[in-house]
Amino acid sequence: MSQRPSLDDGTRPGALAGVRVLEFAQAMAIPICGVLLSDMGAEVIKIEPPEGDAFRKTQLPIIPGESKGYTVLNRGKRSICLDVGSPESRPIVAKLVANADVVLMSLKPADLPRYGLTYEAFSAIKPDIIYLENVPLGPEGPFGQDGGYDVVVQGISGSGAITARSTGDAPMNIRPAYIDMGTGFLSALGVVAALRHRDLTGQGQRVQTSLLGTGLTLANQLVSWFGATDPPLEDAFNQDLAEAQARGAGYEEQRALYEKHFLRGAYGNIYFRHYRTKDGFISIGCLSPALNARFRAVTGVADPRQEPGFDIGTQEGYDRLTRMIAESEATLASRTTKDWIGAFREGGVPCGPFNFPPQVFSDEQVLANEFVVELDHPLLGPYKTFAAPIRMDATPTRIYGASPLLDGDTDTVLAELGFSEDEIAAWRASGVVGAAGE
User: Fold this and answer.
1) Residue 202 per-residue DSSP state
2) In contact, 270 and 325? CB cutoff 8 Å
3) What's 323's DSSP letter?
4) CATH number attached to the domain at 20-218+371-430
5) Edge to edge, what strands does the sheet with 272-276 contain?
6) Which of 182, 113, 191 is nearest to 145 (CA)?
7) Which of 21, 165, 326, 341 is least enclosed, having the fewest CB within 10 Å?
């Protein structure tokens, strides 16, 4: 079935050459996992419902059935349309699984048993199958069988409250969907680890990821609890928060309570942020005392926290930091982005231009490293997207084509599995395979 370089055809195949992956997934998290596996040489067959992945119709649609979101998240794959809710699909699914190495599953957990798409069902067909299951909110608990999306997990995980973005009364959704993307990356890591285990032992296994687990992981130290410091802060915050919520306080007021109790010492950030310049914006990243000192040397801004005895806990200390922030912002606004980048780079301060998305494709650093590539889609024509994010010397990563057309590979894949033209035609006639509305 594979269209990828084999291990003995004279090319330099990807690390996952010869691995066949079935992707029962829509939207973003697991499809990006499929992209990463494809970039590393795996053959990825995407099983879409007759109406197609929902992202074909949403996420910046371009023409009917094709969108920017779907195109970017599904490059290098093959597409078959299959109604997994139909009992007639069972022999097709069984044959697909019998000829696969990996299954990527992110359909709603509650639907899997009635569709026969569980790990238990698949491992009975192929005992060494690797079954990656993404359970959005984790398998247990009151929401364990629910579907889930990035924005929901931003709320549950506390990540949404960390960003401080809001419309005033309500927090804003964070974009891009970093929890979805992070889950895809972790899922790919889990699959590769399971393949390694299978190489050593011959055993397959279930691998489980979740959006919620990813959200908590990405929040790292900002969603943590330490017995030495946090209990009194937590008690005071919860009391103040309950009072604020009882009187209908907006998001900004509620988040200010979080900052007051937990982020007081973080006030006065001039070293790790974006700044406005005379003609645009610049991004500065200093995360050590040495780098902070370089920033002060380049800008001439003094930090009162360097003075012995300075106390941020006093109103005077707080006011001095406020003035320091204002001075830093005024200083950066006095020169152009190009001027500041030259000065900061000469002074050893990590920095870069703040680009809007269209500017990325002409950024000299991006172009010099070929971090974007141009692909040609049969319906949409040329488009630019991110290159393979992992580079390997002995087993090069590469992009194996644009995203597939809906139903574009159904007949070919089924024929490769050994099904006859008559069987395929009958399934098309009954709607088991093929795109809706044929």
Assistant:
1) -
2) yes
3) H
4) 3.40.50.10540
5) 272-276, 281-285, 351-353
6) 113
7) 326
